[in-house]
Amino acid sequence: MANYTFGSKSGNLGNGVLTQNDHEAIKTDYDAHGMRRTVEALLITHLHGHPHVLILKTAASTRFQFPGGVLKPGESEQQGLKRILDALFHAEADADAESVAQESMTWTVGECVSNWWRPNFDANMYPYLPPHVSDPKEHRKLYLVSLPEKLEFTVPNGQELVAIPLFDLYQHKSKFGNQIAAVPYYLSGNDFVYND
Asked: pTM of the prediction?
């Protein structure tokens, strides 16, 4: 964590809770492009001898969410996630840029560690596609993203980037939600090697 610095910039990501407008946006996207494709980043760092997960927290509430967003039609998951992370954390990045800028941050998008499905136009998401659902409304993928050796995060106003110890996520879905609380399960098959 000592290699990273944190600043702020204008902009707001909301509070992570689906509002009526969000439901309408999902419906509108679905009507125009079909199933919404969302990608998110699992960012892990080392602090006090233990792995920590970097999660966005809404400053005015206790809502947590992974950094990520909606892919553009035809955009690859890896390039889209790089574009979204640049827009979130790079002071000069534009969220609507067609491609990742040459001077953008260096993100290494690794394996997909989880899939979540939204069967209907509501808040419920599942870590599997229910067998009776043939037309899901959203598919959300969580990718393990390696951080560069040094990085300056510029976080949108109204948000905080917090480092949560991996052990604090385990069995705390009432605080973090199902998707974030499941991170220890996703990572249980991995060994962590830290570079000095």
From this structure: 0.81
